[in-house]
Amino acid sequence: MVIGGDMVLVNAPQKRVLTPDVVRDIDNAIDPVSDQLQDDQGINAKTVYNVDELLDSAQTAEREQQAILEVSSVEQSYQEALLDYVEAKQEQVDRVEDKLETLIEKQQSRIQQIQSAKPGVLVLPGTRRAWQDQLAQQHSRLQVMQARLEAVREIRDGMGLHSPKIEELAERKLRRNEQELTSDFDSVLEAQRRHNIVTRKSFKQSDSLGVAPKLTLNISHGSK
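Structure tokens predicted for IncP plasmid survival protein KfrC family protein:
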């Protein structure tokens, strides 16, 4: 090389000989970078898969939600019908209770009349036995009436497994008489159950990915 008219000698860069040791050093430097790139690609692929699955779940939940909203009138019709049956059953129980109370009062009066007609000491044994049989018979009838009255009051005031007994009886009659409405209502409940499963799954996945799902739906329903 010539600098300022003078000749200057510059040492040329030496070529690195690829000895086995040099090749090993290069491989050791490249392997961690390659492994990191593969790990990053795997994480990205997994993330894309989870997001796609979450979107599919969200779309499924939206379809379920739309289906429930379209048949929400079924739930309203069922609840209104159930209320009518409960009121009718309550009126029936009240009528039976009043009737039994009246019959019990009359029976007690009848027993008092029989007791007041107790045979004297000088009557024949057959007459006394007939009186005793009649009195026992009337007492037995009174016990039956009282047991029925207690059963009616238990229906009016008692609790079943999930709701008052009077409501359980009313809904049992509703399902027996209104089978088509009942079938439609059960379908609504099943759709809600499936929707809730998808919603819980989506929330669980979104928590792990930091994504907020748009899944909100809740309908009320009566006891089954």
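Residues 20-70 form the longest helix (51 residues).
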